[in-house]
Amino acid sequence: MINQHYLDMLGHKSVIRELSEYATRRGAEIGYENVFDYSLGNPSVPAPRDFNADAVHLLETMEPVKLHGYSPSLGLPGVKEKIAASLRRRFGIDYKAEHIFPTAGCAGAIAHAVRAVTVPGQNVIVFAPYFPEYGPYINETGAQIRVVPARFSDFQINFDGFEKAVDENTAAVLINSPNNPSGVVYSEETLKELSERLARRSAQYGHNIVLISDEPYREIAFDGKKVPYPAHYYPHTLTCYSFSKSLSVPGERIGYVAVNPACEHADELTAVFGQISRGIGHNCPSSLIQMAAADTVDETADLSVYETNMNLLYDTLKDLGFTVQRPGGTFYIMPKTLEEDAVSFCRKAMQYDLIFVPCDGFGAPGYCRLAYCVDTEKVKRSLPVIRKFVEECYR
Prior knowledge:
By secondary structure, the chain is of the alpha/beta class. It is built from 15 helices and twelve strands. It has helices at 4-9, 15-30, 49-61, 64-68, 77-91, 105-117, 134-139, 159-165, 188-205, 243-246, 266-280, 287-295, 304-319, 342-350, 376-394; strands at residues 36-37, 100-103, 123-127, 144-148, 170-176, 210-214, 237-242, 255-259, 332-333, 354-355, 357-358, 368-371. A seven-stranded mixed beta sheet has the order 2-8-7-6-5-3-4, sandwiched between helices. Strands 9-12-11 form a three-stranded antiparallel beta sheet. The chain has a two-stranded parallel ribbon with strand order 1-10.
């Protein structure tokens, strides 16, 4: 027999994936170049030459049995040290190799972090708008997701909502900055206030509420600004990172959890992650990809195309009368739709072969998400189509 719980989940598939699959089918009919697919956040720039060259070098020079053998359950020591050294240089926190746990991307990192600090029946707070997969990431551990409504004025944290949501059963808070789907970067002021409130509530309840920081878009920042590093402001922070976006290698599934050395149980957590792996069948990412990512840890793909695309779309959407927050990073923009029903809006857009994602499942009803990680030429060709859609349907 099949587990009924997972059969039931089939009725709640990812709307992002469903729209991406539709775009692929539509592209087979009319040519994918004629489908303006803003559904899936799949990086559109090539990986750095050094990453590819390093992977080739490893394949050509390392002894095959060693290269392709099992890595230690807690990750390759040399890889962990290179990642820790990079974090020390960049953020001034005294990470060591024992604070780093390699994972299969950010999804794997969050899966380990949530399991390490919760028990069934506790809750994990997230702030809308949020990535919809946080629901299964959290709920499948036996903990419960608790969503704080969005602060629609600027998509910073809704602290009034936080105070209503947090209680003695709150084990962790999960944040994402730069944010998917809004593109907003949490300000230093926001992170300081969050840290103060977490410290105050932790003291009140007699246990530390852990901050889990989901940071796959950390390197995609606009206007020459740096993204504030949440672990700077709160000691009990587990940083979940992926090289998928920075190195443009999402298919390689490589990331890590970095435990702030000041975090409670910092010396035990990576060993705990290793035991969690036994239960969920994680058992370490590829040795080859661990090493290639670590050797290029301070490099990025050419991420400038995303700022170019963002400016094109932002200027057009504003000109057309959309209410939209200017992204500070990522490759997403989230305008308020021109009718209350975002699903209806996106269905109408599909008639123009514009594939937008309604944000009801992100905790932002009445908004839609555009993932502009596509060729700039295609973005430019989509702009008159967006204008036509708006003028014919909403003018």
